[in-house]
Fold ABC transporter ATP-binding protein.
Amino acid sequence: MSAAEPLLEARGLYRFFHIGDDETAALHGVELRLRPGEFVAVMGPSGSGKSTLLACLTGLDEPDAGAVTVAGRRLTRRPEAERARLRARHFGILRQSGNLFPQLSVRQNIALQRRLAGVRGGAASAPIDALLERVALAHRGDDYPASLSGGETARAALAVALAADPAVLIADEPTAEVDRDTEDRLLDTLAAHCAAGRAVLVATHSAELARRADRIVRLRDGGLTDV
Ligand SMILES: Nc1ncnc2c1ncn2[C@@H]1O[C@H](COP(=O)(O)OP(=O)(O)OP(=O)(O)O)[C@@H](O)[C@H]1O
């Protein structure tokens, strides 16, 4: 794959939901391309389709029409197990609800994510130490999620999302529940991931966060437009 090719590409995405006779077009012909180094913010009012878009882009949901390609591999119309493998390999996913297993330490959560992504030496300590350092959690690696503060939890979740150095980091409202310092650190870390030739897509209501993006796209009634 050449450097100019998008890391993530969505073409003609449609997703419909039916309740009784009512039909909602949650996605309506969405086109999106994320190139290496790009930090893109998706904005849109509640119900505009952001969660549906992120789910379809990461293979958690299957669009009714259209195609998604990540790192040159088609993700759509694949068996669930294949989508899960591609998702673990190519995406880092940061959710508001968190992505930490409570029964594992921070270090073990990172190691698990690396193993799921097929990274060789998934539990090797040097890369995990470096990652903990990057999110200022070097001293908390052996602790369990329940003992972390809100800001530490957000940073640990980011470390897990970055564990396998994913081509595309997808974040849903990553700064909604964190203080200003943590927000700055999260945004700096996302920017550094882009600077390393990866791509970041963030769904947010925060104008502050969107200002840090290279490009803002807006969802309205399932359609995506550049701002
Ligand atoms: N499983 C579902 N069944 C029926 N309708 C759904 C389903 N999921 C989403 N929708 C509808 O699709 C539209 C888009 O929803 P979505 O959750 O993607 O919006 P959103 O922009 O993420 O909203 P919010 O910012 O409030 O999280 C809404 O009208 C929603 O009611």
Remarks:
- The mean pLDDT is 91.
- Residues 111 and 146 are 18 Å apart (CA to CA).
- The radius of gyration is 17 Å.
